[in-house]
Amino acid sequence: MHDGLTRGRTTAGGRNYPVPGGMLETAENLRRQYGISRREQDELAVTSHQRAVAAQKNGILAEEIIAVPVRTRNGEELIDTDERPRADTSIESLSRLKPVLLGDDPEATVTAGNASGQNDAASMCLVTTPEKADEYGLTPLVRLVSWGQAGVAPNVMGIGPVPGTDVALAKAGLQLSDIDLIELNEAFAAQALAVMREWNFGVADRERTNVHGSGISLGHPVGATGARMLATLARELNRRQARYGLETMCIGGGQGLAAIFERVGSR
């Protein structure tokens, strides 16, 4: 018997193209390839937590959460807030964390603080046609414009969003500059930074990316993250009355997926 999720994290690339250090090693590979410092990774992690905490305080994240009653030793508890975002996260606190692969690589930089959380969660989204939405009295938030997938080397799986996004943009006839909001899953800070380097992102571009936090601050519950990102993206597009949103993530084994959405009523 074995846990499939745990094994998957340590055997990234599968039987034929194993990555010795697993998913962590793929992040370290991108860190080396793109010259990403530990400081940069920790800074992104701090920003992620700050944005998530602010969104919680402002009630923004509450709009996409359904409270769940949980039985505990002290009775029933209502879980209505994500537990991972930490207001006390700082460069100083993160700098004290030891890199996970330090024993194998003296230059390792990936820590529990600048990587996504292994959280439990569930998420859902309702996909239908305009006709069915009218029939049931539903108000659509966004429409799917295009989507794309691409393969990359398993040992740098985290760069997958770049070619995946290229495919989605080409199908939609858009440029990355046309996108108002971006949800780029933070599997690792090094991975997200590598993608943004490929995109030549500056400060202004980061202001439209993961505006309410991402995997590092909110967690990365595998199998639920995609719909969670879409819930955030769809609501924020409507909140800002913006038009286009991009959702993209890397996938262990060497894949990149991306989808472009348009706010309903924005044309």
Automatic annotation (TrEMBL):
The keyword Acyltransferase applies. InterPro entries: Thiolase, Thiolase-like, Thiolase_C, Thiolase_N. This is Probable acetyl-CoA acetyltransferase. Pfam families: Thiolase_C, Thiolase_N. It is an enzyme of class 2 (transferase). GO terms for molecular function: acetyl-CoA C-acetyltransferase activity. NCBIfam families: AcCoA-C-Actrans. It comes from Mycobacterium lacus. PANTHER family: ACETYL-COA ACETYLTRANSFERASE, CYTOSOLIC, ACETYL-COA C-ACYLTRANSFERASE. Belongs to the thiolase-like superfamily. Thiolase family. Residues 26-129 form the Thiolase N-terminal domain. Keywords: Acyltransferase, Transferase. SUPFAM superfamilies: Thiolase-like (SSF53901). Its EC number is 2.3.1.9. It comes from the Bacteria. Residues 138-263 form the Thiolase C-terminal domain. Residues 1-23 are annotated as: Disordered.
